Amino acid sequence: MKMKQFILLNALLLCATINFAQEKKQAPDNWYLLDPEQDSVQGVSAEKVYATLLKDKPARKVVVAVIDSGIDIDHEDLKDVMWINEDEIPGNGIDDDKNGYIDDIHGWSFIGGKNGDVNAETLEVTREYARLKPKYENVPADKVGKKDKAEFEYWEKVKKKFEEDGERTKRQYAFYKQLYGNLKKANDTLKLVLQSEKLTYDLLDKANLQEASLKKAKETLNFIFTNAGKDADIDAILEEIKGGVEYFEPQANCGYNPDCDARKVVGDNLANVNEKYYGSNNVEGPDPFHGTHVAGIIAANRKNDVGIKGIADNVRIMSVRAVPNGDERDKDVANAIIYAVDNGANIINMSFGKPFSPDKAAVDKAVRYAESKGVLLIHAAGNDSKNNDTEPSFPNRFYTNGKEATNWLEIGASAAGSSDKLVGDFSNYGKKSVNLFAPGVRIYSTVPDNGYGNAQGTSMASPATAGVAAIIMAYFPDLSATQVREVLVKSVRRFDGLKVNKPGSKEMIDFTELSASGGLVNAFEAVKLAMTMKPVVKKK
Q1: Where are the domains positioned within the chain?
Q2: CATH assignment of 6-121+268-530?
Q3: N or C: which terminal CB in the chain sees fewer CB atoms within 10 Å?
Q4: Distance of CA 51 to the CA centre of its chain
Q5: For the whole model, what pTM was predicted?
Q6: DSSP 8-state secondary structure symbol assigned to residue 169
């Protein structure tokens, strides 16, 4: 599932609006590029490192594959940094480079086909529920044989999560839908009556409304002003609530619906997890917001004097579409990793995750393949305020045989300030499973149709780290993926003794307890460390 917290959708609505407004006043839009000493924000120090350590230094191009929902490849700030398959002739319907994928100019989509593209999709828990229900639904626990005991216990876990989370999501969808409907009706009605394009607290306060329905509309809008402040922007808040409707609707109608069959447009054989050659060359898809935002954080054009600047300046972005508005399938994730590796990716960003992975062996095989080819994998830890040490998120670096991938980084989300609010309240964490934290709260980046906007989540922290990794790989091309991983982990910015709110809790905890490194990604120190490292000589 796309790990998105677009405009604080998963926070309590009005509280989220207040917090968003307060935080926006504290830091500039590009805070994640900045430096704590120079700019008083906990960015990655990208601007500082370019102006000092890397000034006039040569660099190579680095290919970063973004496995995501799709990317707006024509965006003004991304079109010139998109990866181009030079061995493929656009639009001729021929697999010119013989890689098995026709007209894959900017990448490939494993969730599209001749008949369309997957958008809303079921969640993995729903698919597992549908798979196991016929076998165990009416079977008492004491009637389960020894060979089926582990699977039955797994079924009980799946059933509980499916029923509880599904019901909660449907309630949330109903809440947002009703709230949006009521507020929009009140807003539209009073705009018309008061002949104003924008309603303010003062305007409503002075309005002498006698009709009962108009008084009710005024009361409805005053609820927002009471909770969000007298200077609240009703129209902006309505857009946030609308986002809530759009976020929960596909989950309620398809995500937790076993009868939702969005996959049929792809035309592959889902039973064959080893199938590779399916999909389409539509790397944008029907909803490229998430992937476009991620791509901009990594590599929005730093030289075109429009929009924003990405973290890395010598990058080509490869779009590999495998993440629907629902849970990605293990088969697609495995193929997306393999495709990226085979087509020259140096780094793969993965801003998605889920709590179940029925075909984990296929993903593990792809991760091992990337490891053998020296490709760095960077993954978002998740947005459930959970400890990944005890509640794993998939995919992850832990193989089923107990070993770990040496080319993997797991990333939590941090905020602009260094106070107790340094960690995003939504962020997953883990002393063993999460490697480090990176900017992921109120991140301003590219969005479709030449737009720019804020989003937050570990989805944004992962590409922030990928951007720093790309800097190291570009300017220090002789370092291996494992060495780059080591550089990023060892060079983190630390905060000795800093107590922060444990995500999802009021409990105060030492920041160092939330990740293995105990720190934030730091481009400036990473470059300094990379300057001292000697390349690993490969054995012949």
Answers
A1: 6-121+268-530, 124-255
A2: 3.40.50.200
A3: C
A4: 29
A5: 0.92
A6: H
